[in-house]
Design goal:
about 260 residues; alpha/beta; five-stranded mixed β-sheet; four-stranded mixed β-sheet; about 30% strand; globular
Length: about 260
């Protein structure tokens, strides 16, 4: 006769070990962990490939803004300028252009949208410009993709893979700041940033999620361009407003205005 109590006990033991294993797998696949891996890769390259006496690396800088917070992966301050670095750990094919608000990630037949990182970094730079009172031309926006991804559309020079971001930084050789300015900028950023903590990260993540959800309402689901209010010019519905893709006539997506 089978002892059911032994079976139940064995099952419970397996279940107890299975829970942390499943939790670990979920963590490894999460955007948060992938982000950490990407940032770690960029940190290591900066540490070993950039002269510490010339380039000052600041990591995970969260700054207050008028509508919440903005979180910057890396800021590298040097006499050659202030490099604002956004990392993306993605795989698959990447489609996008400099002016598109949303880009596309395609893995086999599955496609998903994500915010144009250049636009994301633009907000970072404008926040720093205001806080530091430094001219825009002394900032350099830099996007670094890590992971197994491939660009399927032409990208500007400041969007790179891996070590390419080091080459981009070293390509800037004109002195736009002096040593005293560099030191003051580093100190001002350190003083103005929010204290790094789990709460800071969670609060910022909620803020970003709310922004993304709001923007999705005004993004064309077909091509990723912005949708705008248009007016019917003829026919029975003349004068009626509707939402239409700004990429018309290439994209003819429309929906009724609320």
């Amino acid at each position: 006769m089978i002892d059911t109590s032994l079976i139940i006990t064995a099952f419970l033991k397996v279940f107890i070990y299975l829970i942390p294993l499943l939790a670990l797998i979920a963590l490894l696949k999460s955007p948060f962990f992938k982000g950490l891996i990407g940032e770690f890769f960029v940190n290591v390259l900066a540490k070993f490939c950039l002269d510490k006496s010339k380039y000052h690396l600041l990591k995970n800088v969260t700054l207050p803004t008028e509508d919440g917070t903005t979180q910057i992966d890396h800021i590298i301050v040097s006499r050659f300028g202030i490099f604002v670095v956004e990392t993306k750990n993605l795989k698959g094919w990447i489609f996008g252009s400099e002016k598109q608000p949303m880009w596309t990630q395609k893995i086999y037949r599955h496609s998903s949208k994500f915010q144009n990182p250049l636009r994301q970094n633009y907000k970072h730079i404008k926040t720093l410009e205001s806080a530091l009172e430094i001219e825009a031309e002394k900032f350099f926006s830099l996007i670094v993709f890590v992971g197994d991804s491939t660009f399927k559309t032409p990208m500007p020079d400041n969007i790179t893979y891996g070590y390419g971001y080091i080459r981009f930084i070293k390509s800037k050789t004109d002195h736009v700041l002096d040593d005293d300015q560099v030191q003051k900028i580093v100190e001002k950023i350190q003083q103005g940033r929010l204290q790094p903590s789990i709460k800071t990260h969670i609060d910022h993540a909620r803020h970003v999620k709310a922004i993304v959800e709001n923007k999705k309402k005004n993004i064309c689901p077909r091509c990723g361009s912005e949708i705008v209010i248009r007016v019917v010019k003829k026919g029975e519905d003349k004068g009626k407003e509707f939402w239409g893709c700004s990429n018309f006539p290439k994209c003819r997506y429309t929906r009724e205005a609320a």
